[in-house]
Design a protein that fits this description.
This protein is mainly β and 120 residues long. It is built from 1 helix and 8 strands.
C-alpha cells in the first residue's frame, strides 16, 4: 500500500500497469485482504497513474489499512462448467515498488505443514 486517502469518494486506486497485468477493469469490484491486520473488505478499482506503483485505499477503505501494509487484491468472475476452454487465473506478484513481476496462472496445491511450522 502506498497511499490511504480518507477524504475521497471511495475505491482502490491501482497503477494502470497492474490493472493491465491482472486484467482488472476500472470500476470492477475487488476484494482486499490486508495481510498485516487481517481486515477483509470489498470496494472497486479505479486507475492510478501508469508506472507510478500506486495502490491507494480511499474513502472508508482507508480506515482498514496503513501505508506500507501488504495487501492482496482479488477479483472474481463466474465461469460456467460448460466453457470449452478452462479459465486461467492471473496472479500478479509485485516487487517492493509495486511493479509487476512474476505472473502465475495457478496456485500450488497446499500440503500438510510440518508440525514445526504451524502458526496458531
Amino acid at each position: 500500500m502506498t497511499h490511504c486517502e480518507l477524504h475521497y469518494e471511495g475505491s482502490c486506486a491501482i497503477d494502470e500497469d497492474l490493472l493491465d497485468a491482472s486484467d482488472i477493469r476500472e470500476n470492477e469490484q475487488v476484494h482486499i485482504w490486508n495481510i498485516n491486520n487481517g481486515e477483509r473488505f470489498i470496494t472497486y478499482a479505479i486507475r492510478a497513474v501508469r508506472g507510478s506503483g500506486i495502490v491507494s485505499l480511499n474513502g472508508s477503505a482507508a480506515r482498514r489499512a496503513s501505508v506500507g501494509d501488504l495487501v492482496i487484491i482479488a477479483a472474481f468472475g463466474m465461469v460456467p462448467d460448460s466453457q470449452p476452454v478452462p479459465h486461467l487465473p492471473r496472479l500478479v506478484f509485485v516487487d517492493a515498488h509495486n511493479r509487476a513481476g512474476e505472473l502465475k496462472h495457478s496456485v500450488a496445491v497446499q500440503g500438510a505443514a510440518d508440525e514445526s511450522t504451524h502458526t496458531y
